[in-house]
What does this fold into?
Amino acid sequence: MSVMPLGIDPSLCLIGDVWGPCASGQVLALHNPSDGSVLCQIARGGAVDVDAAVAAARAALDGPWGQMPAFERGRILTRIGQLVLEHVEELAQLEALDVGKPLKQARADVIALARYMEFYGGSADKLHGTTIPYLDGYTVYTMREPHGVTGHIIPWNYPMQIIGRSVGAALAAGNAAVLKPAEEACLTALAFAEIAQRAGLPAGALNVVPGLGAEAGAALSGHPGVNHISFTGSVGVGKMIQAAAAQNVVPVTLELGGKSPQLVFEDADLDDALPFLVNAGIQNAGQTCSASSRILVHRSRYDEVLAAMADRYSALRAGPALADLDVGPLVSLRQKEIVEGFLAKGHDLQIAAQGQVVDDAPEGGAYVPPTLFAGSSADHVLAQDEIFGPVQIVLPFDDEDHAVEIANGTAFGLVASVWTKDGARQMRLAKRLHAGQVFLNNYGAGGGVELPFGGTGLSGHGREKGFEALFAFTSLKTVAARHG
Ligand code: NAI
Ligand code: MG
It folds into this structure.
C-alpha cells in the first residue's frame, strides 16, 4: 500500500506525542491475507520502546492528562468517536486489507469503535463513589481512582472493537495507556492513535508499540511501571500474562475465547433462530472470541435444524475481503494451518455441508471453506476445543438437564444462548449456564457496547464493556473521616 489513510506511517511507534521508529530500527512485514502479499512494514518494538512508552504514560498522569477534569476527558473521547465516524470507509478498508474481514464486517467494527468512544466519553464524568453509613461522628465515602498506567495487549481479530472497549474505558477512567497491537494486524491501532491525537488527546495518554508478543508483549506484561493489564487472546498467552502480572502484583483482565453453545429446544422458532445460529459461527470467518461453534439441538428437531443450517452453509461464499462476500480469508496462513488441522481431526464425523471458496480467490490467500459438522459425541475434540475458523458442530440432546450438561461440559464459559418460547425454561437456563453472557432467543456475539462481557473458566476473568469496565479500570479508595 503506497498511501495510508490518515497519513499514517505504519513503520513507526507512538511514544508521548512523537511518532518514531523503534529503538532497534527493525521492522516486520505485515501481510494481506486475501492474497498473501506484503502490505507494509511495521515497527518491531521491544523492551526499550516499552520502557519509553511506560515513562511517557507516567509523565502524562503527572501532567495535563492527570489533572484534566473528568468531563473534559470525556469530551475528548467523544470527539475521537466523531472523528472515527468521519473516516468510516478509510478505516474499514484498512481493516479489511489487514485482517481479511469482508468490508461490511469491517465497517460494523468501525461503527462499534465510535460507539465505544461515545459511550465511554459520556460516562467519564459519571463515575462516582458512594457514602457509607458508619459510626456516629464519622463520614465515610469511596472514590474511584485510575490505576495509573494500563497495558493493553490485543489480538488481530477485532482490533478496533477491542481498542474501543479496553483503551476507551481505561482512558475514560483517567488512566494512561500503552497499547501493544498484534503483529498480524495493527494498522487500525495506528490510525486510531492518529485520530486520538487529532482529537486533542494529550501527549502520553495513549502510546502504541507494535511488535512481537514474545518481545514487546512480554516486556509490557512484565513491566514494573504498569499498574493494570488487559489481554485478549489465546489461553496459553493469557496464563503467561497472569504469571507476569503476578510478579508485580497488578490486576489483569483476561478474555481468552470460548466454545460458546446455542441451545435449540423443541419449541424454538427455527426461522427466527437460523440466521443467528449460522452467523454466530461464520462472522469474521469464525475468528471471534464469542463465536458460537456448538449448536445443541433437541433430538426431536435435530435433523430439521441440521438440514436448515446445511442449506445456508451450501450457499456461503468465501473470498477476498474487498469482494465483501459472506466469509473472508483467515488472518494468516498460520491460522489457516491451525484450522485445517482441526478439519482433519473431524475425519470421523459427517460433514453436513460446506460453503465454497470462490474460483477467483487469489492463490496465496488464507482461505478455508466454511464447514458444518454433524456430531454425536460432545467429547469430540471439535466439540471441545476453540477452532477459531468458520467451523460449527451440531450435537443432539435429550432433555434440559442433558443440554445443560453438554453446554457446561467444556473448559470455557464465555457466551451461551437459548432458543425456546418457555419463559420458565429461559429463566432456569440463564441461571444454570456457565457463561459471562446468556442470550435468550438471540445471539449477541459479544453483545453491545453497553453489555458487560467476559468469561468464566478458561474464557478468563474480569469484565469489559459497559459500565463494568470502568470499575475494572479503577481502584476503589475508602475515606473514613472522624469529626465528632
Ligand atoms: P496470541 O494469544 O498469541 O496473541 C494475542 C496477542 O498476544 C498478540 O498481540 C500477541 O503479540 C500477544 N502475545 C503473544 N505472546 C505473548 C507473550 N509471550 N507475552 C505477551 N504478549 C504476547 O494468539 P494468536 O497466536 O494470534 O492466536 C492463536 C489462537 O489464540 C487462536 O487460534 C485462537 O484460538 C486464540 N485467540 C483468541 C482470541 C480471542 O479473541 N479470545 C484472539 C486471538 C487468538
Ligand atoms: Mg501467538
